[in-house]
């Protein structure tokens, strides 16, 4: 892995793009009451990897994609997701009138809610861990392995922290997020979590922005918490408090290609 000079500047630049032009961005996603960090982390990880991918998943009634558009502006949109068992594309319809009144921003961009509506609809049509048959999130279940499949149509995999020879090998895989592939780390349980600064949550999924090597040789991990913060963590803190890393099986770089015939509704 080459030495990286990514720093706070690159993160601020990413977060501040909206000041220059209307974009789909990570601040649109904010968890408040629903315990679905696995899904939120997947959405964030895919967005961090490719804004174009997220925008291409959503289409208006005139069949135009949401690429280069601020947010879904029609009353309803079609969303392409994937069956997590077969990895075949599925089209679901999301409706602004059904937007969550607690999650994200009630009067704001609803691209993420359209994705959430879509996986919940799919959960009424098939068994998905983390989704009740009535189409609501199950706060006691769910896996980022499934979430990434639904959002990408690609196979996923996980690596236990205990499988890595040392923290440097662990960091190398986290830093693959620098290459436009979604990477998530899942922390250990409450009885095992240590004290960190910033404090890591227990049994929580974080989307990785990047891995950074500083001039003094120290390594850090920038990650987005779906509860609303972007933080830089010491490598040792993440290594000592992570249960597993979740990613696409082949560390695929997300580059959108239309894979279905969209049906205008």
From TrEMBL:
Residues 1-20 form the signal peptide. InterPro entries: Papain-like_cys_pep_sf (IPR038765). SUPFAM superfamilies: Cysteine proteinases. It comes from the Eukaryota. The keyword Signal applies. Keywords: Signal. This is Calpain catalytic domain-containing protein. The lineage of its organism: Eukaryota, Fungi, Dikarya, Basidiomycota, Agaricomycotina.
């Amino acid at each position: 892995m080459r030495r990286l000079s990514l720093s706070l500047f690159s993160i601020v630049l990413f977060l501040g793009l909206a000041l220059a032009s209307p974009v789909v961005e990570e601040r649109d996603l904010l968890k408040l009451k629903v315990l679905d960090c696995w899904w939120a982390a997947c959405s964030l990880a895919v967005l961090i990897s490719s804004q174009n991918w997220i925008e291409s998943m959503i289409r208006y009634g005139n069949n135009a994609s949401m690429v280069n558009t601020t947010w879904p502006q029609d009353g309803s949109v079609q969303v392409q997701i994937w069956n997590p068992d077969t990895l075949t594309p599925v089209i679901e319809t999301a409706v602004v009138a059904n937007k969550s009144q607690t999650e994200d921003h009630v009067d704001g961009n609803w691209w993420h809610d359209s994705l959430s509506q879509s996986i919940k609809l799919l959960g009424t049509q098939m068994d998905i861990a983390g989704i009740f048959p009535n189409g609501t999130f199950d706060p006691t279940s769910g896996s980022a392995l499934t979430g990434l499949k639904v959002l990408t149509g690609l196979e996923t995999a996980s690596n236990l922290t205990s499988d890595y020879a040392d923290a440097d090998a662990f960091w190398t895989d986290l830093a693959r997020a620098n290459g436009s592939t979604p990477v998530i780390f899942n922390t250990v349980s409450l009885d095992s979590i240590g004290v960190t600064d910033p404090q890591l949550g227990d049994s929580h999924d974080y989307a990785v922005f990047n891995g950074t090597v500083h001039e003094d040789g120290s390594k850090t991990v920038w990650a987005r918490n779906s509860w609303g913060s972007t933080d830089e963590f010491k490598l040792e803190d993440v290594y000592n408090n992570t249960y597993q890393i979740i990613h696409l099986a082949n560390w695929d770089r997300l580059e959108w290609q239309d894979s279905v015939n969209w049906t205008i509704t």
